Amino acid sequence: MNKAKKLYLETFGCQMNVSDSEKIVTLMKGIGYQQTADPVEADLVLLNTCSIRATAEQRVYGHLGKFKSMKKQKPGLIIGVGGCVAQQEGERLLKKAPFVNLVFGTHNLHLLQKMVSGAEQGKQSVATDFLDDEKRFDLFPHAESEGGVSRFVTVMQGCDNFCAYCIVPHVRGREISRSADKVVEEVAALAAAGVTEVTLLGQNVNSYGFKEPGAPDFADLLRLVAQVEGIERLRFTTSHPKDISPRLIACFAEIGKLAPHIHLPAQSGSDAVLKGMNRGYTRAQYLEKVRALRDACPGIQFTGDMIVGFPGEDEAAFEQTMELIEEVQYADLFSFIYSARPGTKAAEFPDEVKRAEKQARLERLQAAQKKITLARNESFVGGVQQVLVEGPSSTGDALFGRTGGNRATVMDGDPALAGRLVEVRITEGLQTLLKGEILDV
């Protein structure tokens, strides 16, 4: 009897890559590979990569060095690189790392089985072509509808915004939306397998739709998915502020299953910097959307992204970002030092901000946000939150779940509660999570 082949898969970057990795696991099972958490056991190593920042790209090449050493000990080991670095680098990746067997881009998951089978025969291959719109979604398989409490469902891919700093349109392509029927069909299959929470994914979900008379927009899609029996909670990410419509904002007031949380990247609090970034909105317009969302859903929690040190950001512009953070009171904020990405418009801009100043600004911003996050978490103490139990905590001695506002929460309870919404009285608010006690269930 043949020994089962083992797949070791590492995922970098955004939730879209996490979703793609679920599909990769399904595809590899189809040609006899079972996933392992131990790279030493692997016959096939795949890295699903991110190139949104230079540090993410450098990390990928660092990891490849580790697997190069493994391959010297195990010559038959197959190494593949997919995702955004693969899309960006293509053939250049093989020149930098000739021990890699295959490189597959963001539009080429459907070729992966054939490429791996070829690598088993000693063939090296690269596939980074963009597909046209008619073929694109038909060639992307669903992940297996097994297990888990919460799953991602891709509703669109690509982006048409071309923010000056962003490489996404260059590595993911232009926007393309899946039909609402196919999205609902996938969600229903997940619900039938026991999934109770889905997160609808896209680079900019707010612009979902076919832009044809009568075709569903994103607000319509949310309402359709909320009707799927078995789905208890609904989330989505990521949102571009300029494309949030009044109809979408109304969903937070009208759809009970829609979680009171939105990831709304501002990127800067300065109008001059926002213009240079080609974000398509002003600081005042961003804050107007924030107020409208809070009016529709008073308890809504905001998370976001900020870039520090974008070309042209002087001290006054940075202070405007700091003021925006204080005004919005984000529950969490992902913040990064600007790094030029090849092919983007901003890569042509003179970078006037010195590295040391960028680092100092980032540390100031993160220190301020750390205080806000802790204060917001402490504000929940004594109140009751609805928590979706996901399973055991990382330490194994409690249950882990998330509030509707996406606050990580731990509490004592029966592991059989996994997948259920429970009422939890919050007893402690820490920097990264809440602690609580489950009320009678």
UniProtKB/TrEMBL annotation:
It holds the Pfam family Radical_SAM. It is an enzyme of class 2 (transferase). Keywords: 4Fe-4S, Cytoplasm, Iron, Iron-sulfur, Metal-binding, S-adenosyl-L-methionine, Transferase, tRNA processing. Residues 145-375 form the Radical SAM core domain. [4Fe-4S] cluster 2 binds at C159, C163, C166. Residues 378-440 form the TRAM domain. InterPro entries: Elp3/MiaA/NifB-like_rSAM (IPR006638), Methylthiotransferase (IPR005839), Methylthiotransferase_CS (IPR020612), Methylthiotransferase_N (IPR013848), Methylthiotransferase_N_sf (IPR038135), MiaB_methiolase (IPR006463), rSAM (IPR007197), rSAM_horseshoe (IPR023404). This is tRNA-2-methylthio-N(6)-dimethylallyladenosine synthase. The lineage of its organism: Bacteria, Pseudomonadati, Thermodesulfobacteriota, Desulfuromonadia, Geobacterales.
